[in-house]
Structures are given as structure tokens and as C-alpha cells.
Specification:
The complex is a heterodimer of chains A (about 170) and B (about 850). Chain A has about 170 residues and is mainly alpha-helical. Chain A has two domains: about 70 residues, Recoverin, domain 1, CATH 1.10.238; about 80 residues, Recoverin, domain 1 (Orthogonal Bundle), CATH 1.10.238. Chain A has a two-stranded antiparallel ribbon with strand order 1-2. Chain A has a two-stranded antiparallel ribbon with strand order 3-4. In chain A, helix 6 crosses helix 9 and helix 7 packs across helix 8. Chain A is globular. Classes of the chains: A mainly alpha (about 170), B mainly alpha (about 850).
């Protein structure tokens, strides 16, 4: 396990020393095979996460270098975005990335469908869901390119008081 | 009205009740006189023989019948809280009895209340307390309970004294200490009343636990203050010294901590006892009640806080008792507790009403009563605001204005105050009757008036808040996504923060306590149960696949079970006759749909609006609900089953499927660097391979996935072999149940695809009629996994050895090499 003391607190995270210590303990606890990184299976060993439809997306966003595993640095940076001290734009960015699966900066029709599918499951049929996605994009898409950019996303979601909703107690 | 009809017999009973006491007096003499002269009597009327238990049973019967009566009219109970109805009923009954008999018959005596009626309610509260939430907010709760109650008592008492000094109250024989005594007993928020009202007002869980916890924990403060001031009053005002005051403060700590300790000790004993009750299953539930009750009585005996004792007994023993006793015993305990608590609460409120009808106790002093009401409300509000302001500097999740309003308004007084005031000694406290009358008025006001109005108030405030931004389609969608994201983050970092203690505690618990207090079988079976689930899952998966082979592909995927009325057949075009009007939807979807009436009403005008409405409606209904929303915490009157296991199962299976797909893609080298790394790591981490696990699998539609053919051959071969599971030594890595679905398009190499528009899909999808023009088929075809495969949590053991070619030199691959040849002989089943 990496030496968390060797990571400077100013790791662009919003945490103070205590929180980082506690998070590192949590990391160690989750890291069942002591490999120093968290794989998806290790995340999934938490029963509550198995029941969360968006977990895979969240883990993918944590995994910034795309190697399939979340190391400690990614873990800290990822969870830091949800700190109460985080900025609203950071949180919006996170939420945007949930939808933007290929990380190209736009939410396409297919991506939105995928994520909604995760959230709706089989309660809706695919063509019904597709209708929903189309309407959503039409409502949001200001420049008419058929995709949702981050600006368009923020404009719509801004009213939800994201920074209050996406604030976890660490 | 039926309600009155049901109460008819109750009236009859009551009249009989009032007549009987007199009859009793009359009976005895002739009975006695005749007894000597008549010899043997075949049948006698022995009223006095059964009098006491008979009357008790009759009262319980009346109360229960009254409950039935109330619930016959749903409209009434949705507006008026049950406690208010019961008080009114009590008043009426008391009036009848008094009119018939001119005596105040039955009152709520402190003994009856404190020894028989209060313990079940508090035990029920403690046993079903959501521990994690409670201890998570313990600091807040303690602050409100202790400081808040002291503040209330002091300010109320002193203000009343101040007003008395100003002469507004007229001539009363009271001193400062009397006022403080009164303040202390009227200050406490009552758990019975709070629960009774909050159950009907659905507030968020944090707010609920704060008010509820406060009402439970303030008992210690109330007891101490009450005893202290009562002994001061007994001593006489001038003889109170500083030492006595210090002793009072010390006694607070002793009483509260001592009561808690007694509760914990009895919880320990209870858990220990239930560990050994394997052979006496029938009386297992009895232990729970007896030992909890003993904790109450013991603490009362030692003059410690009995409510705290029984609360903590319930809180602490929950986990171990539930693990140790059998399923049936657990159900018995739950139901009995709910029954006792509910019954006790009913009786309490009814008796409060009856006891009020006693002209002897009434002494009216307008100023006193009015001012008391004003003071307690105002000071509570001020206290809440001040404390919240302090707390919000230390809390992560802030308490907002609406929360504070609910907290101050929900500070109801109840029977505890009444019982305490009746306990006063009228020789020491000269104006006891005034206090009693005032207490009764206060209780009636808070329970009836505040109980009636709190629900509309909350709704009005909430509606007011959300009116600022109308929830648009996008907002709803994304809001729900955010909830899920936050749930995930909270779970990932779950036990952090002030949960350092929680971690410590769970370690301690795991190492020592569970070993002592939980049955060995319970400790072990935590894992074994998972295995059983696992096995069941597999068996279902096998049979499912077999079914699929028989019946063919797509239709099978979409609607396997015959319960579903909707059978999606991709081949036939949808009938496009009926336009979905509001009423149509309403008619068609009565059973499963919760209609969003607001959106329905707003959008009745045009077709486009109808379409919007349908969309909103489907969104509302079909988005998975995040964790916090659907788990309703505590209910006095209901044992809520977990109705949303379905959702959990579904999500779980979906997740497992996705994991499996990505794993499969890794095997094919689709995303080599990422997935192969995972695969490799998994190989390293695990010791054994289970080679004989069949997998539920669906025949694939798209020809992209032609490797599935091979997989299917391999995997379908072993339905008979029992799966071998690794023991719990598996280093906790997740292993999958192999389920492949159409969603493999997710990880296809061509980037993010919209599976609906995959070219392989049946083109008739596009020609299908849009939803608003089709008959309301919003009843969902249940996915096979949801219906047939039971919920399998936790660690799946890896089942499928995936392999691409038999020429691999990996050891685990080679191990299965021999099986591969035998599988190749199996015929390919349906594959479209």
C-alpha cells in the first residue's frame, strides 16, 4: 500500500490531513488483495454498491488513467470532488462525466441512452427510453449539434443546487 | 356511518361498565344473605370476583374497537392524527361515565402509566431504532435533549415566575421552586406523542431521528430536574444550599449514565441468553420481553433513568438477538412488540381524555394556562434556532429552516408530563390542581392542534420551496442520477469521518462481542447464506437457460413469465388504435402505477402535453429509487416489508452482467490493455478455479458476438455437476455469475453504441408506434433475472472459465482443457 504520508496534502484535494488518513484506512480496507489499487471487484465487495446502478460509471471516472484500477491518488482525487468544500463546477464536471462515457466532452445520444438504461433498467422498453432520450436532448441542446456539451449541461442542471446534493460527509 | 355502528357496542359496553360498579354494591348483600339460607346455587353472578381483570380487558377492547372505527374512514385519518382522535374519544367516554355515575371512574394513574404502558412503547422504539443513523447523529441529539430541555425548563419556569410576580395571575400559593418544578415537567418532549404524529408526516430521516432521539434521551434530564426540584420543594425554599445544587448536577450524570449502563448490561445478558436458547425456541421471544422489562424495573429501583435503560437495552441487543433467535421467534418478537406498543399508545391517549373529565381536579387560571402555552412554544422555537445555529458550524449536513420549523413545531408534550404532574404531592405543592389542569390543556393543545396542523404545514413549506424551480424533465433525470452517484460515493467512503469510532466499534464487535454473544452457527452462516443464495441462483439460471433453448430468443428475453400481460413480440407491429388519454392510462395501470397527479393535472390539454405527461409519469415511476428514499425507517403500526428488493436484484444482476461482459471482452482481447490487466490480476489473486459451473446464458442476437457459441457449448455442459465453491478464503474478490445479454454492445470495439440502433436489431423497432399513441403498456415486462433468479448478494464465486482457445498455456486454462472436447459435441441450440 502506498505511503499516504508521502502524498502531499496539496494533492489538489479538498481534504485535510485527518480526512486523508481516514480515507487511506478506508482504501486499505477496501483493497482486499493488498495490491495497492482497487479493482472493480473490490469495490463491488460492498453490498450497497452492488445495488447502485451507477457504480460502474463512478469507478470509471475515478480511474483517470484508464488502467482499470483505482490507485490511491485517483481515489483521493475522486472522492475529494464530493467534499463539502468542493466547488460546484467540479461536481458538475463529475456529473457530466458520468454521462460522457467516451470522455470526448460531449454527451451523445447513445451515451445518454446507456446511462439512462442503467438507471431505469428494464422498467422501460428500449424504444420508450429512446424517446425519452431524444426529448431530453432536444430540450437541452441549444446549438443543435445533437450532443450535449458541458455548458449546455450546466445550464440545465444548475438549478438543482448540485453542490448541496453532491456533498458527502467525509 | 359504519364508524358509529362499530362504536355502538362500545357505548353499550360503557354503559354497562358504569352500571356495574353500582350493581356490584347491590349484589353483595343479597348474595350474602341468600347464601346462607339457599344452600347450593347452580349459577351465581360473581362480579366482584372478576371485577379488576374484567374492567381492564374491557378497556383494552374498547380502545381497540375505537381504532377499528377510526380507520373505517380513510379521509378522517389522513387529516387528523390518531392520537387526537383517541383523546377526543376519551373525553367523550369520560363524559358518559361521569354523566352516568357522577364519579370520575378511571384515571391514568402514574403507576399504571410508568409500569405498564410506557415500557412497551419505549422498548419498541429502542428495538427498532436505526442504529447507524442514531449514533451518527448522537451529538446533535444529545445537545437538543440535554441543553434544549434544560433551556426549556429554565426559561419557562422563570418566565412564569416573572409573570406571577407581576401579579397577572392573581392570587396563587406558589413559590419560585414550584414554578421551576412545573417548568421541568412541562418542558420535556414526549416520545409517545412525537412518534404518533411524525409517523404520519414523512420527514427526512435525519430530521426524524433527531426529534425522536431527543424525545427519548431527554428523559434523563426530566427525571433529574423533576427529582431535584421536588426534593427542593420538600425541603422548603429557604433551605436549599449550593451543595444541593451541585449534587443536582452530579445526579444528572449519575442518572443518565447509570441508566444507560443498566440497559447495556441487560442487553448483554439478553444476547447471551438467546445464544443458548436453541432448544427452547418456543419461549425465545419471552426472554426478550422479560429481560428488557427487568432492565426498566431495575433502573427504576435504583432511581436511575428507566427510559434510558430500556431504550439502550433495545438498541444494543438488536443485532445479536436478531442473529441468534430463529426466524419465527424474530417474527413473533416483532409482532408482539408492535402490538404491545400500539396498544399501549392507544390506551394512553384514550385515558388522557378520560382523565380530563374530573371536575375535582380542574382549576382554571386563564393567565397561567395561556402563558404556559405561549412560553413553551416560543422558548422551544428560540432554543431550536440557537442550538441549530451552533450545530450547523460543526455539522456537515446542515439543518435548514424548514427542518428547524418542523423541530420546534414537533415538540409535543404528552402523557409523561401528565403522569409526572399527577405524582406531585399536593401537600408540598399547593397548587397541584392548577398544574394538572394546565398540563392537560397543554397536552391537548399540542397533540390535537399541532398534530393536526403539522402535516399541512410541512407540505406547504415543502411545496413553497420547490415552487421556486419547477422540476423539468432534465432536472428530474439528473437529480435522480445525482442521488445514485452520491449513494455510491457515500458507500465507497462509507465509514469515514466521525465513523472512526464506528470502525473501532465494529472491530471490537467482530473480535470479541460477536464471539461471545452470537451463536457460532450465526457467525458462520453469514457466509454460508451467501453460498446458498449462490446455489439457488445457479440452479435457476440453468433452468432458465434450458427454458430459453426451448422457446427461442427474443420473445423469451423480453417476456418470459406468464404473469405479464405484455408480451413484446418484435415481429408484429404494434396496434395503433387507442390514443392514450389520461383516463385510459388511469384505467390500465391501476395496480402498479403511482400516478404523479400533479403532472397529470397540469398537462391535460394537448397531445404534446399528454406526451410530456406520459414521459414525466414514466420517469417518476421507472427510475430506480436511490437508497435513502425508499427505505422507510420506522413505523409504529406497520412492519414494512422490503418492497424494493426487486430493484436491488435487478440492478445487481445488471451490474453483474456488465462486469461479465467486460470480462468476456477482455478475454477476446477487445480492450486488451484495460481488461486484460484486470483479468490477469484476477488470476493472480485467486487460488482455485471452479471449472464446472454452468451459466445462465441467453442466445445472442447480434452476430458480433459469435464467440458466444463456443461459450455456450462449454457452459451448458454441466448442469448436473454441483458447483464447488471455494470457502470463504477467497480473498473477497468478486466473481461473477456469467450472464450474457444483449447489452454486450456496450463494450463493443466500435465505440459507444446505442444498442437500440444497432444494425443487427430488428428493424421493426423503428416502425413502432410512439408511446403516446399506443395502448398504455406501461406495465413492465419483467426481465428474466428479476423474476426468476433470487437475490444473490455479495461474493459470487467465479464460475466460468472463459477461454478462447484450447492452446493457451495458462495453468487454469489447461485444467479445463479436457472438458472442452467433450463439450464440442453438444449441438448448438437456438441462436438467431
Amino acid at each position: 500500500m502506498g505511503n499516504e504520508t508521502s502524498y502531499p496534502v496539496e494533492m489538489c484535494s479538498h481534504f485535510d490531513q485527518d480526512e486523508i488518513k481516514q480515507l487511506s484506512k478506508r482504501f486499505k480496507k477496501l483493497d482486499l488483495d493488498k495490491s495497492g489499487t482497487l479493482s472493480v471487484e473490490e469495490f463491488m465487495s460492498l453490498p450497497e454498491l452492488q445495488e447502485n446502478p451507477l457504480v460502474q460509471r463512478v469507478i470509471d471516472i475515478f480511474d483517470t488513467d484508464g488502467n482499470g484500477e483505482v490507485d490511491f491518488r485517483e481515489f483521493i482525487l475522486g472522492t475529494s470532488q464530493f467534499s463539502v468544500r468542493g466547488e460546484e463546477e467540479q461536481k458538475l464536471r463529475f456529473a457530466f462525466n458520468i454521462y460522457d462515457m467516451d470522455k470526448d466532452g460531449y454527451i451523445s445520444n447513445g451515451e445518454l441512452f446507456q446511462v439512462l438504461k442503467m438507471m431505469v433498467g428494464d422498467n422501460l422498453e428500449d424504444w420508450q427510453l429512446q424517446q425519452l432520450v431524444d426529448k431530453t436532448i432536444i430540450a437541452v441542446d441549444k446549438d443543435g449539434d445533437g450532443k450535449i456539451s458541458f455548458q449546455e449541461f450546466s445550464a440545465v442542471v444548475g438549478g438543482l443546487e448540485v453542490h448541496k446534493k453532491l456533498a458527502a460527509i467525509f | 356511518m359504519l364508524g358509529r355502528g362499530a362504536l355502538g357496542p362500545a357505548w353499550g359496553l360503557l354503559l354497562a361498565l358504569s352500571v356495574l360498579p353500582r350493581a356490584r354494591g347491590v349484589e353483595e348483600e343479597p348474595g350474602g344473605a341468600h347464601g346462607e339460607t339457599q344452600g347450593f346455587q347452580v349459577v351465581t353472578f360473581e362480579w366482584h370476583h372478576v371485577q379488576d381483570p374484567y374492567i381492564i380487558a374491557l378497556w383494552i377492547l374498547v380502545a381497540s374497537l375505537a381504532k377499528i372505527g377510526f380507520h373505517l374512514s380513510h379521509k378522517v385519518t389522513s387529516v387528523v392524527p390518531e392520537s387526537a382522535l383517541l383523546i377526543v374519544l376519551g373525553l367523550v367516554l369520560g363524559g358518559i361515565v361521569w354523566a352516568a355515575d357522577h364519579i370520575a371512574s378511571f384515571t391514568l394513574t402514574p403507576t399504571l402509566f410508568f409500569f405498564y404502558l410506557l415500557p412497551p412503547i419505549v422498548l419498541d422504539a429502542g428495538y427498532f431504532m436505526p442504529n447507524r443513523l442514531f449514533f451518527g447523529n448522537l451529538g446533535t441529539i444529545l445537545l437538543y435533549a440535554v441543553i434544549g430541555t434544560v433551556w426549556n425548563a429554565a426559561t419557562t419556569g422563570l418566565s412564569l415566575y416573572g409573570v406571577f410576580l407581576s401579579g397577572l395571575m392573581g392570587d396563587l400559593d406558589i413559590g419560585l421552586l414550584d414554578f421551576l418544578l412545573f417548568g421541568s415537567l412541562i418542558a420535556a418532549v414526549d416520545p409517545v406523542a412525537v412518534l404518533a404524529v411524525f409517523e404520519e408526516v414523512h420527514v427526512n430521516e435525519v430530521l426524524f431521528i433527531i426529534v425522536f432521539g431527543e424525545s427519548l434521551l431527554n428523559d434523563a434530564v426530566t427525571v433529574v430536574l423533576y427529582n431535584v426540584f421536588e426534593s427542593f420543594v420538600t425541603l422548603g425554599g429557604d433551605k436549599v444550599t449550593g451543595v444541593d445544587c451541585v449534587k443536582g448536577i452530579v445526579s444528572f450524570f449519575v442518572v443518565s449514565l447509570g441508566g444507560t449502563l443498566v440497559g447495556v448490561v441487560f442487553a448483554f445478558l439478553l444476547s447471551l441468553v438467546t445464544r443458548f436458547t436453541k432448544h427452547v425456541r418456543i419461549i425465545e421471544p419471552g426472554f426478550v420481553f422479560v429481560l428488557s422489562y427487568l432492565s426498566y424495573l431495575t433502573s427504576e429501583m435504583l432511581s436511575l433513568s428507566a427510559i434510558l435503560a430500556i431504550t439502550f437495552c433495545g438498541i444494543c441487543c438488536q443485532k445479536y438477538v436478531k442473529a441468534n433467535i430463529s426466524e419465527q421467534s424474530a417474527t413473533t418478537v416483532r409482532y408482539t412488540m408492535k402490538m404491545l406498543a400500539s396498544g399501549a399508545e392507544t390506551i394512553i391517549f384514550m385515558f388522557l381524555g378520560i382523565s380530563a373529565v374530573d371536575p375535582l381536579i380542574w382549576k382554571w387560571n386563564t393567565a397561567f394556562i395561556l402563558l404556559t402555552l405561549v412560553f413553551i412554544s416560543v422558548y422551544r422555537a428560540i432554543g431550536v434556532v440557537l442550538q441549530t445555529w451552533i450545530l450547523n458550524r460543526y455539522r456537515m449536513v446542515q439543518l435548514e429552516i424548514i427542518d428547524q420549523v418542523v423541530m420546534s413545531y414537533g415538540g409535543l408534550r404528552g402523557a409523561v408530563a401528565y403522569a409526572l404532574v399527577v405524582l406531585l404531592d399536593e401537600n408540598k405543592v399547593k397548587e397541584k390542581n392548577l398544574f394538572v389542569s394546565t398540563t392537560l390543556i397543554v397536552i391537548f393543545f399540542t397533540v390535537i392542534f399541532q398534530g393536526l396542523t403539522i402535516k399541512p404545514l410541512v407540505q406547504w413549506l415543502k411545496v413553497k420551496r420547490s415552487e421556486q424551480r419547477e422540476p423539468k424533465l432534465n432536472e428530474k433525470l439528473h437529480g435522480r442520477a445525482f442521488d445514485h452517484i452520491l449513494s455510491a460515493i457515500e458507500d465507497i467512503s462509507g465509514q469515514i469521518g466521525h465513523n472512526y469510532l464506528r470502525d473501532k466499534w465494529s472491530n471490537f464487535d467482530r473480535k470479541f462481542l460477536s464471539k461471545i454473544l452470537m451463536r457460532r452457527s450465526a457467525q458462520k452462516s453469514r457466509d454460508r447464506i451467501l453460498n446458498v443464495f449462490h446455489e439457488l441462483n445457479l440452479k435457476d439460471a440453468i433452468s432458465y437457460v434450458a427454458e430459453g433453448e426451448r422457446r427461442g430468443s427474443l420473445a423469451f428475453i423480453r417476456s418470459p413469465s406468464t404473469d405479464n400481460m405484455v408480451n413484446v413480440d418484435f415481429s408484429t407491429p404494434r396496434p395503433s388504435t387507442v390514443e392514450a388519454s389520461v383516463s385510459y392510462l388511469l384505467r390500465e395501470n391501476v395496480s402498479t402505477v403511482r400516478l404523479d397527479m400533479q403532472s397529470l393535472e397540469q398537462r391535460r390539454q394537448s397531445v404534446r402535453d399528454t406526451e410530456d405527461m406520459v414521459t414525466h409519469h414514466t420517469l417518476q415511476q421507472y427510475l430506480y429509487k436511490p437508497r435513502q428514499q425508499y427505505k422507510h425507517l420506522y413505523s409504529r403500526h406497520e412492519l414494512t416489508a422490503d418492497e424494493d428488493e426487486k430493484q436491488d436484484k435487478e440492478i445487481f444482476h445488471r451490474t453483474m452482467r456488465k462486469r461479465l461482459e467486460s470480462f468476456k471482452s477482455a478475454k477476446l482481447g477487445v480492450n486488451p490493455h484495460k481488461k486484460a490487466a484486470k483479468l490477469y490480476k484476477r488470476e493472480r489473486a485467486q487460488k482455485r478455479r471452479n471449472s464446472s459451473i454452468p451459466n445462465g446464458k441467453l442466445p445472442m442476437v447480434s452476430p458480433l458476438q459469435d464467440f458466444t457459441i463456443k461459450e455456450k457449448d462449454l457452459e451448458l455442459s454441466d448442469p448436473e455437476e454441483p458447483p464447488n465453491y471455494d470457502a470463504e478464503e477467497m480473498s473477497g474478490g468478486i466473481e461473477f455469475l456469467a450472464n450474457i445479454t444483449q447489452d454486450t454492445a456496450t463494450d463493443s470495439p466500435s465505440g459507444i453504441d446505442n444498442p437500440v440502433f444497432c444494425p443487427d436489431e430488428d428493424p421493426s423497432i423503428l416502425s413502432r408506434v410512439p408511446p403516446w399513441l399506443s395502448p398504455g403498456e406501461t406495465v413492465v415486462p419483467s426481465q428474466r433475472a428479476r423474476v426468476q433468479i433470487p437475490h444473490s448478494p455479495g461474493n459470487f464465486h467465479r464460475l466460468a472459465p472463459f477461454r478462447v482457445s484450447g492452446k493457451s498455456v495458462d495453468s487454469f486454462l489447461l485444467a479445463d482443457g479436457s472438458e472442452e472436447q467433450s463439450h464440442a459435441a453438444l449441438p448448438e441450440s437456438t441462436h438467431m
